[in-house]
UniProtKB/TrEMBL annotation:
InterPro entries: NAD(P)-bd_dom_sf, SDR_fam. One of its GO terms (biological process) is bile acid metabolic process. It comes from Priestia aryabhattai (Bacillus aryabhattai). The keyword Cell membrane does not apply. This is NAD(P)-dependent dehydrogenase (Short-subunit alcohol dehydrogenase family).
Amino acid sequence: MVNRFDGKVILITGAGSGLGQASALQVAKEGAKLSLVDLNASSLQETKNKVLEVVPNAEVLLITANVSDEKEVENYINKTVKKFKKIDGFFNNAGIEGKQSLTEDFDIDEFQKVVNVNLNGVFYGLKSVLKVMREQGFGSIVNTASVGGIRGLGNQSGYAASKHGVVGLTRNSGIEYGQYGISIKAIAPGAIMTPMVEGSLRQIDSEKWEEAGKQFVETNPMKRFGKPEEVAYLVAFLLSDQANFINATVIPIDGGQSYKY
């Protein structure tokens, strides 16, 4: 197979686990140089170790950052450009779920925390990387939205609101920047078995969360959870030159969950 990312630099936030880690592994296998960002330094190192197990000569830059802090976002962009001189692709992925409750009971500080990471963090990433990509005259961006960004999710007002915002940013920025050779799209994962989804299930039932998961997947047409590597295959395609004409849109990867309602 042709290595779609030979000579290309891919920047990934939320790279310490879940979709970010799986996507880092996938694009590294296809030749990418990696700039990996996460709040958790030990998780980042774990991802790097996994990458080097499968691609021993991979170039990997690790940057610890809080994506809800605009200055730290500007810093991870600047460090990546300083190291690699360009950014070909950006998986704008870092996010949190937050606590679950009815909207009337949703704590305002919790709401703001979720929005600060999931929406503001994506916006700060876009704002900084688009300056680099417009000057380059090329680039591909994949934002992580959610099925919660294209329909409602009970007891998750903060999460759903933030992911609806990511969808809006994706469509709007794609319209603005397509003329500069930059394609911007979002993925809308459903229930993918990641640490974040496990955490969500534990909020439903801390002791019998696996049983809660079995009940949950019964609502999915495919009757199972998705796998992080399945999302990584999509992310790699969307970051590649093969997907340059896909712009200002959102692509669900959810086993049909978002179309059932």
